[in-house]
Amino acid sequence: MEADGGMGRDMFQPLQRLVSSQGIIGQFLRYAVVGGVAFVADYGTLLLLAECLHWHYLASATVAFVVGLVVNYALSVWWVFSQARFENKKLEFAIFAVIGVVGLLINNEAMWGFTDGLGIDYRLSKLLAAAIVLVWNFMARRIILFTK
Fold first, then answer.
1. Is the pLDDT of residue 43 over 80?
2. Which pTM was predicted?
């Protein structure tokens, strides 16, 4: 019996194949991982600014979103999307950022609606908003930037 209780690496092979595939499901799974890393940067910055520096939650969310955007761009270009539409990286980042700004507007509007409108704590509001923005960002970036 293997040291891991009989559960070999083979059980992860279907997941590895799915994540490494170039289809939309593989891209979305990689984007979700990248989004998770970017979210940690975003959420950590939000908490630092709001909790430690006592900034307003929406100002904190805006700065944090930009931090997450930069992390997301770097990892998306490196790991998620293999075919870029644009050879000009400055133009590509500008479009990536515009999509991100729309995501920021969605993020802040959702956070405001959940927090001020429904009385949900801003930290939970951020989690809910992030799920909405994840779908928007992936679809917009895939369609506009990274699929030829």
1. yes
2. 0.64
